[in-house]
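Sanity check

After download, print the first record. It should look like this:
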Amino acid sequence: MHNVRREEIMSKVPEVTLFFWIIKIAATTLGETGGDSVTMTLGWGYLSGTALFFALLVVLVLAQILAKRFHAFLYWATIVASTTFGTTMADFADRSLGIGYTGGSALLFLCLMTILGLWYWSQGTISVNTVSTPKAEAFYWAAITFSQTLGTALGDWAADTGGLGYEGGALVFAAGLAILAGLYFWTKTSRVFLFWAAFILTRPLGATVGDLLDKPVADGGFAFSRPLASAIIAAFIIVCLLVLPQRAGRHPAPSEAKS
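Expected structure tokens:
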């Protein structure tokens, strides 16, 4: 019975640690360079690229939900798929639909708030520590995908409409993450709020790293091709998964959840 109880309280998402955020930023960078490799370098365009990555995301989310336990490589492959789809979807909403960065960001924010609201209404919480059932996982991955997409749109909005450029935008989002870290360590601000805020802000920060890798040397970049940059980041993520601890998170047992 002890083993059954342990299985019931184990989640299929990893513990949220510093290592989680390191890999998350790398995954968002890969989403940026990988998405642009397909839509721009290979010339697929935003609509076709979005359809391709959406199909891949659906397959991986279903595999994640059907899995019996936490698998680090499967989880992070799904994260990469969500951030790659987020890149192409945000670009499609911002540019192909003609609603601009401000309109795209507002639309995606509304979608994310709707998903989180439905999740809270259905489950009574939107904490990632409670992701242990198929329904909660479905809400989790929907929220993850929209937060990735919103992060992409916000990064483009800050760099273009906001006039900050990618470097200025990176500084703003890094400062925002530093503030969230301060709130985490020195206040009792809701951990749920801090997680989702950080998840959104790490997206444009990762995108800036991607831009740094493929920008010309004259512009301060490394001038890697998008496919090469994607391969480098993918290798970095694989090394991280092999070296850094990846443990399944826990959600409260029924008796603990009521206390």
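If your output differs, re-run the checksum step. Summary of this record's structure: The beta strands are 10-14, 248-250.
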